[in-house]
Amino acid sequence: MKRYIYINDDETSQDLYCANRLSNRKYTLMNFLPKNLWEQFSRFMNQYFLLIACLQLWSLITPVNPASTWGPLIFIFAVSATKEAWDDYNRYLSDKKANEKEVWVVKQGIKKLIQSQDIRVGNIVWLRENDEVPCDLVLIGTSDPQGVCYVETAALDGETDLKTRLIPAACMGMDFELLHKIKGVIECPGPDKDIRRFDGNLRLLPPFIDNDVCPLTIKNTILQSCYLRNTEWACGVAVYTGNETKLGMTRGIPEPKLTAVDAMIDKLTGAIFVFQIVVVIVLGTAGNVWKDTEARKQWYVLYPQEFPWYELLVIPLRFELLCSIMIPISIKVSLDLVKSLYAKFIDWDYEMIDPETDTPSHATNTAISEDLAQVEYILTDKTGTLTENRMIFRRCCIGGIFYGNETGDALKDVGLLNAITSGSPDVIRFLTVMAVCNTVIPAKSKAGAILYKAQSQDEEALVHAAAQLHMVLVNKNASILEIKFNGSVLQYEILETLEFTSDRKRMSVVVKDCHSGNISLLSKGADEAILPYAHAGQQTRTFVEAVEQYSQLGLRTLCLAWREVEEDEYQEWSLMFKEASSTLIDREWRIAEVCQRLEHDLKVLGVTAIEDRLQDGVPETIETLRKAGINFWMLTGDKQNTAIQIALSCNFISPEPKGQLLSIDGKTEDEVCRSLERVLLTMRITTSEPKDVAFVVDGWALEIALKHYRKAFTELAILSRTAICCRVTPSQKAQLVELLKSCDYRTLAIGDGGNDVRMIQKADIGVGISGREGLQAARAADYSIGKFRFLKRLILVHGRYSYNRTAFLSQYSFYKSLLICFIQIFFSFISGLSGTSLFNSVSLMAYNVFYTSIPVLVSTIDKDLSEGTVMQHPQILFYCQAGRLLNPSTFAGWFGRSLFHAIVAFVISIHVYAYEKSEMEEVSMVALSGCIWLQAFVVALETK
Amino acid sequence: MEVEGGNTSANDAVARKIPIQSRRAKVFYQFTQQNLPACKPVLTPSWIVTTFLLMGVIFIPIGLVTLRTSHSVIEIVERYDTECIPEKFRGNKVSYIKDSTILKNCSLYLKVPKHMKAPIYIYYQLDNYYQNHRRYVKSRNDQQLLHGLKSNDTSSCQPEDSSNGLPIVPCGLIAWSLFNDTFKFIRESSELVVNRKNIAWKSDRNHKFGKQVYPFNFQNGTFIGGGSLDPSVPLSDQEDLIVWMRTAALPSFRKMYGRIEEDLDADDVIAVHLMNNYNTYSFGGKKKLVLSTSSWLGGKNDFLGVAYVFVGSSSIIISLVFMLLHVKNPRPYGETAYLSWNR
Predict the structure, then answer these.
(1) In CATH terms, is domain A2-19+119-250 a member of 1.10.357.20?
(2) A908: nearest CA in chain B?
(3) In what order do the strands lie in the sheet with B182-187?
(4) For a Cys staple, B283 with which of A297, A761, A801, A929, CB 3.0–4.6 Å?
(5) Catalytic residues of A
(6) Is the pLDDT of residue B213 over 90?
(7) How many angstroms separate the CA of residue B270 from the nearest CA in chain A?
(8) Exposure string over A153-189, b if 16+ CB within 10 A, otherwise e
(9) Which residues in chain B have their CB less than 8 angstroms from residue A868's CB?
(10) Which residues in chain A are closer than 8 Å to B153, comparing Cβ atoms?
């Protein structure tokens, strides 16, 4: 559905589309009670308890006081309703804060400060530097004369670099005053969640110049939750508002998560329910038969001769109520209680406090701790999660001389510093390339210091390093670039920029020295994209060695090169380049080809090595967790090479002889299909070999694979223990999580940026790293930790203990209620199958609450093995993953145990108290204390 | 025993950073770090063998003592429900017992096998009598028993809550079916004194049955159940009723009738004159008279002793089996080669 937006038209745009009001709330004040009750009653357990509670109101059949069921039931409902209400209230508060934020909007031609929630589609919104964008806008004006503005999209796609956005051609050159009065129509598609696409048209209405339709792309928009950077002001027309923005559509409602243990408990509860029904039917029928044959003779019971039809139901229903304690109502309360305690343990853990920022770990979702121990796949983001997201220039090799090898920091290398002061031409040239050959924008802060704004963190690192080596990039103004070197200012004119593409793997600039008028080509790029094009006379062996050496250290390498270009050669080439730039078909390929014509016979200057430091302990953590049988997938928006390098350096994949990396690529369906099949074939062959096989896939191929070859890709996913997915979008990350979940794997997603939010929400467990990319991920996640390495402790210690404890506690809860229930059943055999309860309400309640539920809470601090043992032998986690402690067969064990214990307790109490002291209350007390002793013994035996 | 303390070296650094002011703070710190001192028994083979052996050594003597005590109790059990029906009514016992015009006296002769020391407890025992039937158990009103007519709601007593439009005190099936056989004991033509006081629980007499509550409108209906009560005696003194109202858990049960506070010598012959009023014939229930002495363990019951001996001897056997297995097939403790992923 298309929408037509009338810019700045207060009348027509008012009510067509929703206001810019964010709402993440689930309930309103009015519908809270019915909706919440409805939700709670959609769980089987709750329906069951309600039915039992209602049956107990019929005094003819109830064995015990109805309050013994109604009390706990109401308590449980009240607790979970309160929790929901509290959560919803917090959501309301945060929505309110966002909605009431004040923004400048043009209304009736005048700029006014209004609340963000009152923005309407078609309004012109004004933003200042560092403002957050309140809704999706089409840019129409900025402070920059060339119509450019910079935005930070970290919250949207997780990339921290600045992106440039352009105002559409039609609005170019409009002044401040005119922008208030602008009128026009924007034609655009209905709201969707694709953050990389926006296809619209803009037509300005008279009196505003030409009548031409001006096309709009995503380049002309600034989306909600981005930040305006480096631009004094910008203004735009609101096109999507409220929950219809790209971000709002992406957000998706997080579903409540159910752990594997919960699912198992539900299943077991179902089994017990079936068992209970069988018992009830058998005993009920037997009871009715006994009543008709025997009870009529027992004159003291005084059964009436005539009875209503429902009398037949009375005995079965009595047994139903008698057996209803088989499913312990306390299980939910005590599980909720211990689970929140597990969560508290995570919050409290001093060993999981990030020492740098002092942020403790936090468990937002208190209900899923035990799932941590059952994780089979970890899907991790790269930048900021595995790495610190901080690039630092570490080493370099200039003209065959290695700098920084001794100290590990080239900036402090005496040899290099000496070379600079002595003015070695190679070194100077090298530094010039570092400072010039990039797209970094220097900006002066108010204090006078120079800040670099870069699209790529590597470039930023290089420019910073050059500045520290006295080659300071001072200013970039249109095409003139100023460099300060040892006090003198050098000026270059940038003639062309040959942009980086992932195919070319290099970028170059053609510059003209303003002083001498010489034209030169400066290039930098990956080794395989530079070294083959070195001029014939140069030996590149040392550089190859350097690259190899640096790669092994896990450093990101770039080769720098240059060559002089003759004036006429440049002129000739420039024409071709212009022509190529303006072609419409295969433009990228044509440009690449033209660039190739200039980028040859390069004089290689040297190699730089940049470190994106891995976080502390990442390789160890990954190794330990992989030993524990957990598979890792890396999903990153980054380039393939970088991803592979990081993967190598953090033990993610093994280097060549031991491991093998297969890649799935291709731009078209056929290509992807072929390479997918090839990879799958290799994968099938190598599964039996002790070889680490991983596959790499990029976003394009992934999209095609998921769309057309889902089955093959799923098989690949099952076969492969490791995968690297590069250039993936947030929604693809979520899709991959879905894929693994659909194969019944337990997934954990860990990430730190806004682009990981969806994956985190979709996964069984979402872990957010409260890192440099803001807190969105941490807020959306179930657990937030400060550093990746804490994941090890989170899973191996907290997850494992939680699983063990929950497994014990849940089965124990069933055990103790089955124990008492079996005794009731046995007793009914000697009480004429009439459904008499051996125990009275008070003692039943006391048994359930004081004697069993409270003491067993001790098991929440029970540890079967010490933390150190588990960390040393992560294989222990296999037990938890396979669910060895809570499954039908362990449960059968507990069932048998309770049956056996019930028989023992019953036989002993009946026989010891036979005949002369066989009063019912005494027997009941003896049996009860027998049960209490037995279960206490079990608790003591099972906790370690 | 493996003891895990709260001071592993890894935590030392952190512990030092956080000043531990008081004991409570320290305990809380240990709790939050899941680091409370704990002691965990490691179930090594020798441990298990010792434990089972010890269990056997303790249990068998206890069992033997218990058995001995139980055997020292002397018990006379005499079934009288069929004998006390005159020959001519044997064919139709129910009509005999229901016929209120016949005086149903009957005599039994019991021979004392061994010297019986006072006090000798007299019980009547009923078999196949379901006092624990749900309809029966619930048919009483504790409020009425304590407060009499002041408590009006007698719906729980149905179907014996009222007759002739007036409430019944005590109401309900239990009271209505009160046992009403009586016994007299004669030794060598002199009557043995049977103490029928203090046969019910003191707490029942004082707190559960009202001192001001007198039977009212009891056994006045068309259908008469068991015994009747003297309307001039308050419920708290009607000890037979109090004993009867403590319902039995098993379908065969004994209830106290009284105590003989004289010793009975071996070979004494005791004549019992009884009134056989109570109807157990319609459902084939047995009635028995029991005379029994008591020990510190109560009445005669071999079960406990046998159970102790059984458990004790089986744990000794288990310990022996374990010991043999361990000697034949020793396995070193803490050997990592046995871990499932190393095998």
Answers:
(1) no
(2) B304
(3) B105-111, B269-275, B182-187, B190-191
(4) A297
(5) 381
(6) no
(7) 22
(8) bbbbbbbbebbebbbbebbeebeeeebbebebbbebe
(9) 8, 10
(10) none
Q: Over A134-156, what HEC string results?
A: CCEEEEEEECCCCCEEEEECHHH
Beta strands A506-513; A233-240: pairing state: unpaired
Burial class (CB in 10 A: 0-12, 13-18, 19+), A728: buried
The tally of CA atoms less than 13 A away on the side-chain side of residue B87 is 0
CA B335, chain centre distance (Å): 52
Q: Where does residue B332 rank: exposed (0-12), middle (13-18), buried (19+ CB within 10 A)?
A: exposed
First to last CA, chain B: 27
- Cis-peptide, bond into residue A304, ω within 30° of zero: no
User: Is B105 domain-assigned?
Assistant: yes
In this predicted model, what pLDDT tens digit does every residue of A826-879 receive, in sequence order? 999 888 888 888 888 888 888 887 788 777 777 777 788 888 888 888 888 888
* pLDDT more than 70, % of chain B: 92
Pairing relation of β-strands A722-726 and A783-785?
A: unpaired
Q: Give me the amino acid identity at B323.
A: M
Question: A616: annotated binding-site residue?
Answer: no
Express each pLDDT in A266-298 by its tens digit.
888 889 999 999 999 999 999 888 888 887 788
The sheet carrying A214-216 orders its strands as: A2-7, A184-189, A200-204, A214-216
The kind and range of the H/E element at A240 are: strand A233-240
CATH of A359-387+614-790, one of 3.40.980.10, 2.120.10.30, 3.40.50.1000, 3.40.50.300: 3.40.50.1000
Instruction: Record the tokens describing residue A175, joined without a space.
Output: 């002044």
Give the global pTM: 0.79
Selecting from A299, A916, A923 the residue whose C-beta is nearest the C-beta of B254 gives A916
Q: Is residue B172 located within the same domain as residue B46?
A: no
Angle at which helices A699-708 and A669-686 cross, to 10°: 90
Say if residue A756 carries a ligand binding annotation: yes
In a domain, B217, yes or no: yes
Q: According to the annotation, is A942 in a ligand binding site?
A: no
Q: Does A351 touch chain B (CB under 8 A)?
A: yes
* Residues of the domain holding B231: 74-294
**C-alpha to C-alpha distances, B244 to B170, B213, B238, B299, nearest whole angstrom:** 12, 17, 10, 19
Rounded distance between C-alpha atoms, residue A145 and residue A174, angstroms: 10
Write the DSSP string, A542-585.
HHHHHHHHHHHTT-EEEEEEEEEE-HHHHHHHHHHHHHHHT-SS
* ipTM attached to this prediction: 0.87
Q: Does A213 touch chain B (CB under 8 A)?
A: no
Lookup: tokens for A464? 């910073």
- Dist CA A179 CA A73 (whole Å): 63
Token representation of residue B22: 């008081």
- Candidates A645, A656, A638; CA nearest to A693 is A656
Residues B194 and B302 in one domain: no
CATH class of the A393-566+601-612 domain in this structure: alpha beta
What whole-number distance in Å separates Cα of residue A851 and Cα of residue A934?
A: 11
B164 and B308 co-located in one domain: no
What average pLDDT does the segment A22-49 reach? Answer: 81
Instruction: Reply yes or no on whether the pLDDT at A16 is more than 80.
Output: no
> Rounded CA gap, A856 and A886, in Å?
17
Task: List own/partner pairs for A887-890 with CB under 8 A and 24 or more apart.
Answer: A887/A264, A888/A267, A888/A268, A888/A271, A890/A807, A890/A811
Are B101 and B139 found together in one domain?
A: yes
Decide if B183 contacts B255 (C-beta within 8 A): no
d(CA A626, CA A634): 14
Q: At A463, is the secondary structure helix, strand, or coil?
A: helix
Query: Which two three-digit tokens encode residue B50?
Result: 């010792």
**DSSP track, B28-94:** HHHHHTT---EEE----HHHHHHHHHHHHHHHHHHHHHHHHHHHH--EEEEE-TTTTS-GGGGGGHH
Tens of pLDDT, residue by residue over A897-933, are 999 999 998 888 888 776 656 677 888 888 888 888 8
